[in-house]
Amino acid sequence: MKHLLLFVIFILFFSLSVNAQNINVIPTGKCHDFTVTVVAQNLTGCYDIKIDVPGIIKNEDNWRSTFFYIGNALCAPSSAQVQVRLSSDESVNATVKLRSNNKIYEKDFTFYQDCDLPNNRTVLLYGLGSALILFGAVVIGWKNSS
Known about the structure:
The protein is an alpha+beta fold. It has helices spanning 2-21, 120-145; strands at 23-29, 33-40, 45-52, 55-59, 62-65, 70-76, 79-86, 92-100, 103-111.
């Protein structure tokens, strides 16, 4: 009985690892806004797609939480593109899920972000420039009122 149970666990583990090999995920983008191309290989049928990551996804013309699946977004063997807007500036790990009836295939991947953040010197220069413009406006206003 123990051997049978070990065999069943081995088969389940092996089938999960094979499932991940059936999906290719290609994220393209730089900062926050990405297009995720999902390619289904050796699969048949239509699948709902979910991108498990903090942010929002575009479903038709509406943005909604990544908590939801996009219905019938991919009919295999084919590919689909999903627009994702991340809620973080950092690189984040994500999971794409393909769902059809009671089967779910998963593939982990990473969004590598390259967000250009302003450095302290740039912020200081913008602040100083704004202060000078404001000071000039006050002086001109004061001279015109006298």
